Amino acid sequence: MHPLITTTVLLLLTPPSLTLQSLYSFTLPDITGKEIDFSTFKGKTILVVNVASQCGQTDAHYKSLKRLHDILSFSPSTPDGGSSFEILAFPSNDFGDQEPWEEKEIEEFVRGHFKAEFLLFPKTIVKGEEIHPFWKWIAGWFP
């Protein structure tokens, strides 16, 4: 996918530094409205990616994300028995209006068509003046 369409940030969170600690203060709703406490990601490797349903590379990229999740989510587990790898996917309409759908349609598409089980968040503004605070935090890593 073109870098303007999908921005991918791999955050290796072991061991956490003081700078990374602020990540753990985020609590965001997933696409169903369930609150996700980012402190649960302590000690895990996470892939944060923004996605779009109407991009020319959507099919290949969702299939790749699903495969990556399927393979790495079976990596050595955390002490609580969970996976040590997570994908956090944030749909965004910020790049060429390639995510026109609402949350319910996005979830049905990703879960139904691709059978993806990784974390999916609501459509999010990832750049510009109205950038979501989480993405503003990420952008701060790349001045």
Automatic annotation (TrEMBL):
This protein's name: Putative phospholipid hydroperoxide glutathione peroxidase 6, mitochondrial
Family from the record: Belongs to the glutathione peroxidase family.
GO terms classed as biological process: response to oxidative stress
Catalytic residues as annotated in Swiss-Prot or TrEMBL: 55
Domain of life from the UniProt record: Eukaryota
Signal sequence segment: 1-19
One MF annotation (Gene Ontology) recorded for this entry: peroxidase activity
PANTHER family recorded: GLUTATHIONE PEROXIDASE (PTHR11592:SF78)
Any Pfam family: GSHPx
